[in-house]
Recover the amino acids of this structure.
């Protein structure tokens, strides 16, 4: 019998468009699980900022072989999947300008390694042992 090892599979690095598509799918599912109520507005700046921060912190350059990922395009793609009514040229231009504004005003925050390691340790220490 052959067993699939998730740990060994997680060590395989993706490249190109397949990595981007998987990243987009994971971010969309994460947002759907964690954001309970989305604003009915076509353009929601808080959701867009949240997606920008997710993408800023969701991967490292070591995770993807070619290291050439257009974060702005991924943000727009994820936003349009979550809000299909914003899928027209005018809204895309507005979304791109908003993403650029978030970047230029430094509203995209990188999570510190200390905070990341603290949360890992805390989850490990207080997780239920079975």
């Amino acid at each position: 019998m052959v067993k699939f090892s998730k740990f060994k599979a997680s060590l395989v690095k993706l490249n190109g468009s397949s990595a981007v598509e998987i990243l987009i799918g994971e971010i969309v599912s994460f947002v759907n699980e964690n954001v309970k109520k989305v604003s009915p507005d076509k353009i929601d700046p808080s959701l867009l900022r949240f997606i920008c921060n997710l993408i800023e912190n969701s991967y490292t350059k070591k995770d993807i072989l070619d290291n050439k990922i257009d974060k702005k395009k991924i943000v727009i793609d994820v936003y349009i999947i979550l809000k299909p009514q914003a899928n027209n040229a005018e809204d895309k231009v507005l979304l791109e300008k908003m993403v650029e504004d978030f970047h230029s005003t430094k509203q995209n925050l990188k999570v510190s390694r200390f905070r990341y390691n603290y949360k890992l340790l805390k989850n490990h220490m207080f997780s239920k042992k079975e």
